[in-house]
Fold Monocyte to macrophage differentiation factor 2.
Amino acid sequence: QGPSLPTLTLLLRALDFRFMNHRVPSNCRYQPTEYEHAANCATHAFWIIPSILGSSILHVLSDNQWETISAWIYGFGLTGLFLVSTIFHTISWKKRHLREHCFALPQPRNCYYYQGLNGLSYSPRLNLRELGPWASHMRWLIWIMATVGTVYVFFFHERYKLVELVCYIIMGFFPAVVILSMPNTDGLLELMAGGVFYCLGTVFFKSDGRIPFAHAIWHLFVAIGAGIHYYAIWRYLYRPDALEGKASR
């Protein structure tokens, strides 16, 4: 006869404990398992080199000052997102005695306020396209929103997770709605699609202790969203044969 039901239950629980720890109270930090730590590092480290290459392509394709500046800002943020996230998760994994001092470093979630669905993802479009009446204010408003979000996370990290999550989503979709007022909406579908992936990823962001490797899965959604946004920027703002008015500028 095969193993009894209680034996199977114990086996499944043992596997869960190996790949996933128990959930923690809302005001405490979840402690990943060794496997989850490794996955958290790998799922963003993999994208560091592609982000550098992608940023370099935008720089090469730039043919005026604003395009060059936008390429540098966006490329710095895109690469910094994956680099800082990888460093932070590596320290959390390998240097656990430094875990409490990690707040002295730029935290990954702070970078998401700048890169994910906020400042850097929208800056190239706001800098290089003709702006509508609402979008003209969004050039500086997205940076105010990103700064406020970063300050909030720095002082209240892990204390009000639901508030942090709601702000993350609002700050992601608000600039996309404003872009609807712009005369040229090419690429809006890709921007919205990237935003959907970011927001779907928050389901896993809130599932530590319920779904194994939940945080790493969230990382993958962030990477997919960033990739879609990069494609929209490359295709509609930098690719030479995609810009009808580029030759006339």
Observations:
- Residues 245-249 have pLDDT under 50 and may be disordered.
- The chain has ten helices and no strands.
- The longest helix spans residues 65-94.
- Residues 35-240 form one domain.
